[in-house]
Amino acid sequence: MTQTSTRPRRLSPAEVHARLGEPEAMIKDKKLDHIDEHFRFFIAHSPFLSLATADAAGRADCSPRGDYPGFVKVLDGHTLAIPDRPGNKIADSFRNLAENDGVGLLFLIPGMRETLRVNGRGYPTDEPDVLARMQTEASEPVLAIVVEVAEAYFHCGRSLIRSRLWDPASQALADEMPSVGEIAAAQIGADVDPTVLTHALEESYRKLY
């Protein structure tokens, strides 16, 4: 018996455009090619962003970045710098930037429905003056990602409203998840007590800086 594919039908760009229609002129005009005073103020209050990159073949990756509000520095109206804090050392973003320097950023502020999107070109740096601006609690990053801004704009809050992301009641969803130790033990097939794995991860969280 021949097995039929369950992959959904792919739409052409023309079909997508026909279904979505044209954006209003105000929506088109809100995109700027620089960081103005309002974007700068938003970035200064944001403790979290998602960083999207892709390799030469277009294989995409999106990683979370977070720290104290304002951890991303506005070097000038066309340039941002993101500190590379201690993490898992996989360095997917850096490998992608070596092949394809396109980046997309999505900044969030807890409790605020609107987000800030920034797109541009990125590259790693170890410039001492840049790294010194990112020092926290006597810890200075060894690398940073410089983003040359091509466009920036605020995104409406519909997705955050629908997701109820900032609703305290939504945090109850986390209680329904297994522990990270249980997940890790199942995924890597480790013959290790999940409690031990969870404890090790929690201990690593306490050594962020």
From TrEMBL:
<protein>
    <submittedName>
        <fullName>Pyridoxamine 5'-phosphate oxidase family protein</fullName>
    </submittedName>
</protein>
<dbReference type="InterPro" id="IPR011576">
    <property type="entry name" value="Pyridox_Oxase_N"/>
</dbReference>
<dbReference type="InterPro" id="IPR024029">
    <property type="entry name" value="Pyridox_Oxase_FMN-dep"/>
</dbReference>
<dbReference type="InterPro" id="IPR012349">
    <property type="entry name" value="Split_barrel_FMN-bd"/>
</dbReference>
<feature type="domain" description="Pyridoxamine 5'-phosphate oxidase N-terminal">
    <location>
        <begin position="35"/>
        <end position="156"/>
    </location>
</feature>
<dbReference type="Pfam" id="PF01243">
    <property type="entry name" value="PNPOx_N"/>
</dbReference>
